[in-house]
Structures are given as C-alpha cells and as structure tokens.
Amino acid sequence: MLTKEALFPPELPRPRVAYSPAIKAGPFVFVSGQLASDLNTGTPAHATINPQFPFHGTEIERQVRYIGENIAVCLKAGGAGLGHVVHLTNYLVDPADQPGATRAIQGCFGGTPPPTSTIIVDELPIPGCRSEIDLVALVPDAGQRLEFLNPPALPAPLPAGLDGPPLHHLGVKCGSWLFTSGVLATDFAQGIAAEARTTDTFPYYGENGRLQAAYILERLKAVLAAGGASLHDVVKAEVYLTDLKDFFRLDEVWKEYFPIDPPARTTAPVRDLGIPGARIAINLIAFQPGPGQVRRTIHTDAAPTPLAHEPQAVQAGPLLFFSQQLATDYRTGVPPEAKLNPAFPYYGSESAAQVNYIVKHIEAICAAAGTSSEHLVRRRGFYTDFAEFFTSFATWGKAFPSAPPASTTIRVPAPLLVPGCKVAIDLIGLIPGAG
User: Fold this and answer.
1) What sign results for the dihedral spanned by CA atoms 56, 60, 66, 68?
2) Consecutive H or E run containing 129
3) Sequence-distant (≥ 6) Cβ neighbours of residue 137 within 8 angstroms
4) Largest Cα–Cα distance of the chain, in whole Å?
5) CATH assignment of the domain containing 398
6) What's the rounded mean pLDDT across residues 36-40?
7) Residue 302 sits in the same domain as residue 317
8) In terms of domains, do 214 and 160 share one?
9) Are the CB atoms for 375 and 429 separated by under 8 Å?
C-alpha cells in the first residue's frame, strides 16, 4: 500500500506556514514551489548579484540556480534526482526573465529540461523573488525508464533565431503515466501560428481563443500519441488564460476533444504567457491503467458540481486529481456561508471563510474517492490578493496539523473564474489503498 511521507530536509529552512518542502508518495515526489529565499533574510547573497560587479551575471540566473540547488536537496530526500523530473512549472513575474531562467534551468539539468510550463504571474509571496518553481518527479519501477516524447511531426520548442538546445522536452512517459509540457499556439517560427489566429481580412470569421485552444489540443494529441496514448487517457489538465473571456470558447472546444469522461481541470488567469498574442497554455497528465489499476470520475452530491465541462475529481490509480476548488456553489456565486456578515465586517476574515468552505468540500470529494484530506500531496493556491494570505494559510493549516501537502502560492490577476472568489486551490491527493 502506498503511503504519504512529508519531507523536511535539514539542509533547508523550516517553512513559516503549513506546507511540506516535498512529499513522497510511492514512486512520486512532489516538490513545493521553491523561491530564492532562506525564509529569514529574504533573498540571500548567494542568490543575488554582487553590487560591485553588476554586469557579471543576471539576477534571474542566480535565483534559479539557487532554486535548483534546493530542488535537488528535496528530490534526494525522496530518493529521486533531477533525472526523474517529469514536469516543472516556472512562475515568473517578468517575461523578460525567460531567457536567463531558461539558461539556468538548462544548466541544472545539463541540457534539455523535462516537460516545462512557464507562466507569468503578478506577484510571488516573498518580495524580490523573481521565480518560483515546483515540480513532480517519478522514480521508475524496476524494468521501467523515463522516455522523453518529441514527435518529429512537431517543431522542437526552440524559437527561430535562438541557439542552443530546445527549451524543454514536449512530453515524457514512464509506465502508466504521461506528462506533457505546457503548450502554446506557436510554431516557434512566427509567434502565433497562422492557423491559430484570425486574419485582418476576415476578423469576424473565427475567434482567437477557440482557434488557439484547438491548435494546442491537436499538438497535445500528437505528444500523447508518441507515447501510445490518446486524449481519452488524460486525467488532469492545467489551463492558463490571459483573458478569462476565452474560457467559454475553450470549454466549447473542450467538449469536442473530451466528449465523455473529461479530465479534472484547473483554470487560472495569468498576466502573460511569454509570446505576444498567446492567450492559452495547456499541459496534461495522462494515465493508462495497468492490471489492478482504476481510472474513474469522482462525484458526490456533498460538494458543488462544476458548471463547465469538468468533473469534481478523477482517480488515476493511486492518485486523485481535483478540478480547481473555489468558494462557490455554482448557483449564486460566492454563497453566504463563504462571506462575512455585512453587518459585522470586522468580525472575521472573508479569505478564511472561503478557505473553510473549500476545505469542507475537499473532504467530501476525498471521502467519495475512498481517501481523506490528510492524504493530499500537493496544493497550489492562486490568490488575487496577498493582503490576507497569512490568515487564509493559517486557516488552511488548521486542517493539516501534521504532514501538510507540498504547496505553491502565487498571485494572479483578478477576477478568478467566479468573481468574488479570492483563491483557487489546485490539488492532488493519494488514495493509499489503490493500486
């Protein structure tokens, strides 16, 4: 039976809020969002430019190298290494930092990095930090290996005119699992590919959000096919939008590509995707059940049912993938239970009320899947305002007095998919008794 183990490497500072630097769950290691901070002084000298030599190196490269060292420590504590990483997400606050961050990541991995998603966000939780990186590693069973997927029919992720190795691999397969990079609607030659955008001649004969979504999903199909899988095998999707008005268009396309049993999905607004005109980025996790393994959609009437084409959660073998959790009943927006009494606005915290509402429904979904919230292994919090970050995280921490999940926290543009919601929480859980 798989178990969850919270990892607190002695080489790293103890977190100031309720999260574990990493979680080991069977062959998986989930590493929390790592920042260039020692949690005591802010950004340490080791991760900054020497002011006496301001033109020798870049701030972002030093920060990412520092992060890479901490990631290696977390992985080692879980019996893994950088060669076992199957997906990496780099949250940047400045799109101009992409080249330096890429060089530093390539240096950490000694060449082309694993499947990667790069997202531009509004703010990170520690001032001065320019990058936050989280990742998933998978240690192969005996007789298995990580197989990187780069279909020859797709252009390598290397923008025209850029020298060096590709920015990342497009996908990776290990046993029953496949992970893809974050894919944008680019052909790496002309920015947004021609077939993924409308034209000046016929601007109303198409919608850019719909065109980009379809272009991306076609390319993701090719990556999965290179690993012997299909969109039917997808159990989790992460979607980033620069304009939430594209969500309806995306969902319409989603129904065409996932007509039945759609994957769990988290959709978050972001400031930028690093390529002018890019509106959508999508990365996928797929699972092909082996003997004794299960893939099933989870539903319970004790939690709100999403309005869009996504389930509450999906079980894939021993893992439970949630769709994003918001403080909404999907009927009235933010319900009274998740709000403060307007007659007593200073007698509580709305963020805390929303987190309590979310935790209640997380518990219900876990119970429907045959597990509990104590077995959550990864949390991502997408906040629209950090003013009540500590209060909301303290509320979250009460639900996890020990072994809290690995965690990543970022600030994104308001609103979230349901206006009035202050945080969206993305989750992965463990079902200990599952194969």
Assistant:
1) negative
2) none
3) 28, 29, 31, 75, 78, 80, 81, 84, 85, 86
4) 64
5) 3.30.1330.40
6) 86
7) no
8) yes
9) yes
